[in-house]
Amino acid sequence: MLKRLAWMVCLSLLLLFNFAFAKVGILSTQEVASMIGKKGVVIIDTRPQEAYLKAHLPNAVNLTPTGELFSEQYGVKAASIASNSQLEAALSNAGILPTDTVIVYSGGDNPAFFLTNATRVILALKWAGVENVYFMNGGFEKWVDEKRPVQSGEVALPKTHFVIKRNTPQTYVFSDFVEWAVKNENKIQLVDVRPFAQYTGEFTSDKRLAKYGHIKG
Q1: 27-59 per-position pLDDT tens digit
Q2: What pLDDT score was predicted for residue 193?
Q3: Are 54 and 114 in contact (CB under 8 A)?
Q4: Three-state secondary structure call for residue 77
Q5: Quick one: which of 20, 31, 71, 188 is 20 to 30 A from 2 by CA?
Q6: E strands, 164-208, where?
């Protein structure tokens, strides 16, 4: 009896642990197809609005990686995550709640931006506190190749009241943390994902920069 009770307690704690932490994952087009139209499921198309309006997944809303989830800094459009109040307004207008299951997909023929566009939106959603966010593997092109249904025009979901209780710290870091990381190279590894010529400092045509190269370490 005690062994059984201990097992039930362990199982309950495991379930609570899983529910306590938000999920980020990858779904197949088949899995996404089975979820369309279900309560609490929101699908986000991250492609440019022109492409989105021509055709998109059924009931998908459009949030782009240069849109209202981001702000302009240092002369770069969408260089930084938006303020919490701006995020709350954008996600409320999109019809999203923190408890929703949100599926994000991208598309296009430029591999440099195919995953980047979706990733930026996913990070913004996680930063704002959306509990469960998934990427649809293969993107819009795979969906179309499989002859799955599409829809044209803009989708407007009922507006919600999105409230950010706290930001997810594993999502973004800011300059003060980077400065600390530079002084603690043995504790933190920085990774520069820009093209190699920018990393080495050979690319100098961007006159917005006072220095060229990469962050120390």
Answers
A1: 999 999 999 999 999 999 999 999 999 999 999
A2: 86
A3: no
A4: strand
A5: 20
A6: none
User: What is the Cα Rg of the chain in Å?
Assistant: 20
Domains of the chain, by residue range, sit at: 21-145, 173-217
The pair of three-digit structure tokens given for residue 102, joined into one six-digit string? 């949100």
Long-range contacts of 209-215 (CB under 8 A, 24+ apart): 215/178, 215/182, 215/190
| Of residues 24, 11, 186, 158, the one with CA closest to residue 101 | 24
Instruction: Write the DSSP assignment of 68-118 as a string of letters.
Output: TTEEEETTEEEEEEPPHHHHHHHHHHHT--TTSEEEEE---S-HHHHHHHH
Predicted TM-score (pTM) of the model is: 0.80
- Asked whether the predicted pLDDT for residue 133 surpasses 90, the reply is yes
Closest CA to 157 of 59, 24, 58: 59
- CATH number of this structure's domain 21-145: 3.40.250.10
* Count of CB atoms situated within 10 Å of the CB of 85: 9
Contact between residue 121 and residue 65 where contact means Cβ atoms under 8 Å apart? yes
The pair of structure tokens assigned to 178 is 């980077």
Residue range 101-118, pLDDT digits in tens? 999 999 987 777 778 889
Alpha carbons 163 and 178: distance in angstroms, whole number: 28
